[in-house]
C-alpha cells in the first residue's frame, strides 16, 4: 500500500513552474502527429515530434485530449532526454507536478474509450460524482526505474492491473483490461521520462486511479468512470530510508473488518488509518501496526505496508483472508525468500510471536522493504537487534531492489523494459 496525494493535489504548483519548461536538448520521447490543433494547444513540449519511420524499435498508439492520434516511438540511438531541474539527492515522498497524465473514460456500456495523454493539471468532477459522495474509487501504486544504460524498467505492472480488476469488482466498477492498464502505464512513463530519477537516486512513482466520476444522488454505482494515471519522482517513503522504523500497536481502532473492503485497494481504507497514524506520529512513532478486529491479538498490517516476522530460518506473515491487502511487494518477497532457502508461512501471527521475533520488517511498493527497529505494545517497547536492521531484511531488500533496478539478472521475469 502506498501513501498518495488526494485529488485536490492534482494541480500545478507555482513553486514548480520552472520545472515544467521543456528541455533545451532533444529527447527520445518522440511523437508523430498530423494535428495542427495539438501543436497549437500543447507547444512548446518537452517531447519532440518526428515521423515514426525514423524509429522502428518500439512504438504504440496513443491520443491527446483533443482527439488527435499519435504514436510514441523510441530508438536505442535516440538522444537521452534532459533531466528535470530538481535536487535529485534530496527527493522526498510527495507529489511533484510532472508533464503529463493519462485519462480514459468508461460509460454505462462498461467499455473504456481510447485513452489520452494530457497536460498534468486539475481535473473536473461533478459535485455529485460517485467518488466524492460515496467513495467509489480505488488506486494502485508502482514504480519505474532508470538503468545506467538508459533503459527504463517497470516491476510486475500486470499484477497491479489484476489487483485493480479484483478491487473494481468488489466496489461495482468496470476496470481497464490488463493490456489497457499496462499500455497506459507505459505511455505515461515514457511521456514523463525526464522526471525519472537517475540510477540510485530514487524512482518514478506511478499512481493509477479508478473512480466513479459520473453524477449520482442515490446510493448506487456511478453512471461514468474515469481511469487516470499521474506520476511523481520520489525518494524514500519513510524519512528513515533503510534505517529502522519504530511502530506502535493500535489496540482500539481497526483498519478493516471481516466482510469489508480491507483486502482491496479502495480509497476508504486509507482515510480509516489517518486518526491513529497521526496520533502515533505525534508521539514520535513512524507508523501504526493494526490488529484483527475480532480477537484483537493477531497482526494485520501497517497503515501503508504488509508486515513480516523472522525467527531463525522461518519467515511468517499474516495470511490474506479479506482484511489484508495482497501486496505485490509482499508476494514478491515471499517468492524471493523461498528461492533463498527460507521457510515461509502465511498464517495468523500473534502479538506474542511478534514480540519474540528475531527481526521484523515491512513491505510495500513505496517502502520496498523497511526494517523495524522497535515495536511498542501497551506501553512496552521491544527492540530488534543492535541497530534494528536485521540480516534477513537487508538480504531480501538487496535482492529485490537489484531486480527492480536491473542490477541483477531477472530470472523471475518480473521486470518490463520500456526501451
From TrEMBL:
Its cofactor is pyridoxal 5'-phosphate. One of its GO terms (cellular component) is cytoplasm. Belongs to the class-IV pyridoxal-phosphate-dependent aminotransferase family. GO terms for biological process: amino acid biosynthetic process; branched-chain amino acid biosynthetic process. InterPro entries: Aminotrans_IV, Aminotrans_IV_CS, Aminotransferase-like, B_amino_transII, BCAT-like_C, BCAT-like_N, BCAT_family. It is an enzyme of class 2 (transferase). NCBIfam families: ilvE_II, PRK13357.1. Keywords: Amino-acid biosynthesis, Aminotransferase, Branched-chain amino acid biosynthesis, Pyridoxal phosphate, Transferase. It catalyses: L-leucine + 2-oxoglutarate = 4-methyl-2-oxopentanoate + L-glutamate; L-valine + 2-oxoglutarate = 3-methyl-2-oxobutanoate + L-glutamate; L-isoleucine + 2-oxoglutarate = (S)-3-methyl-2-oxopentanoate + L-glutamate. It comes from Solanum stoloniferum. Gene3D superfamilies: 3.30.470.10, D-amino Acid Aminotransferase, subunit A, domain 2 (3.20.10.10). SUPFAM superfamilies: D-aminoacid aminotransferase-like PLP-dependent enzymes. The modification N6-(pyridoxal phosphate)lysine is found at residue 265. Its EC number is 2.6.1.42. The keyword Amino-acid biosynthesis applies. CDD domains: BCAT_beta_family. This is Branched-chain-amino-acid aminotransferase.
Amino acid at each position: 500500500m502506498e501513501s498518495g496525494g488526494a485529488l485536490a493535489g492534482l494541480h500545478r504548483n507555482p513553486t514548480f513552474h520552472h520545472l515544467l519548461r521543456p528541455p533545451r536538448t532533444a529527447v527520445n520521447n518522440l511523437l508523430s502527429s498530423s494535428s495542427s490543433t495539438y501543436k497549437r494547444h500543447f507547444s512548446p513540449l518537452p517531447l519532440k515530434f518526428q515521423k515514426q519511420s525514423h524509429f522502428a524499435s518500439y512504438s504504440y498508439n496513443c491520443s491527446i485530449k483533443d482527439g488527435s492520434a499519435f504514436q510514441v516511438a523510441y530508438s536505442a540511438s535516440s538522444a537521452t532526454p534532459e533531466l528535470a531541474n530538481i535536487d535529485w539527492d534530496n527527493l522526498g515522498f510527495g507529489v511533484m507536478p510532472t508533464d503529463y497524465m493519462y485519462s480514459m473514460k468508461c460509460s454505462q456500456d462498461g467499455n473504456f474509450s481510447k485513452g489520452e495523454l494530457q497536460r498534468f493539471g486539475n481535473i473536473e468532477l461533478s459535485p455529485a460524482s460517485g467518488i466524492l459522495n460515496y467513495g467509489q474509487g480505488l488506486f494502485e501504486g508502482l514504480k519505474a526505474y532508470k538503468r545506467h544504460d538508459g533503459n527504463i524498467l517497470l516491476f510486475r505492472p500486470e499484477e497491479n492491473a489484476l489487483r485493480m480488476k479484483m478491487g473494481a469488482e468488489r466496489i461495482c466498477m468496470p476496470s481497464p483490461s490488463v493490456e489497457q492498464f499496462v499500455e497506459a502505464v507505459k505511455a505515461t512513463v515514457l511521456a514523463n521520462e525526464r522526471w525519472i530519477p537517475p540510477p540510485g537516486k530514487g524512482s518514478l512513482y506511478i499512481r493509477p486511479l479508478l473512480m466513479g466520476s459520473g453524477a449520482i444522488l442515490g446510493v448506487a454505482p456511478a453512471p461514468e468512470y474515469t481511469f487516470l494515471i499521474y506520476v511523481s519522482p520520489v525518494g524514500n517513503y519513510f524519512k528513515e530510508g533503510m534505517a529502522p522504523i519504530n511502530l506502535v500497536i493500535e489496540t482500539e481502532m481497526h483498519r478493516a473488518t471481516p466482510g469489508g473492503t480491507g483486502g482491496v485497494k479502495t480509497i476508504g481504507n486509507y482515510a480509516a488509518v489517518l486518526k491513529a497514524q497521526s496520533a502515533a506520529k505525534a508521539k514520535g512513532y513512524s507508523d501504526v501496526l493494526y490488529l484483527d478486529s475480532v480477537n484483537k491479538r493477531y497482526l494485520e498490517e501497517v497503515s501503508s505496508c504488509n508486515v513480516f516476522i523472522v525467527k531463525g530460518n522461518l519467515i511468517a506473515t499474516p495470511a490474506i483472508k479479506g482484511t489484508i491487502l495482497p501486496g505485490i511487494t509482499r508476494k514478491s518477497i515471499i517468492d524471493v525468500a523461498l528461492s533463498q532457502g527460507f521457510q515461509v508461512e502465511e498464517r495468523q501471527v500473534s502479538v506474542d510471536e511478534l514480540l519474540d521475533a528475531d527481526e521484523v520488517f515491512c513491505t510495500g511498493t513505496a517502502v520496498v522493504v523497511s526494517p523495524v527497529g522497535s515495536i511498542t505494545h501497551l506501553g512496552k517497547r521491544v527492540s530488534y537487534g543492535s541497530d534494528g536492521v536485521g540480516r534477513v531484511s537487508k538480504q531480501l531488500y538487496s535482492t529485490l531492489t537489484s531486480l527492480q533496478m536491473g542490477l541483477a539478472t531477472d530470472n523471475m521475469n518480473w521486470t518490463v523494459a520500456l526501451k
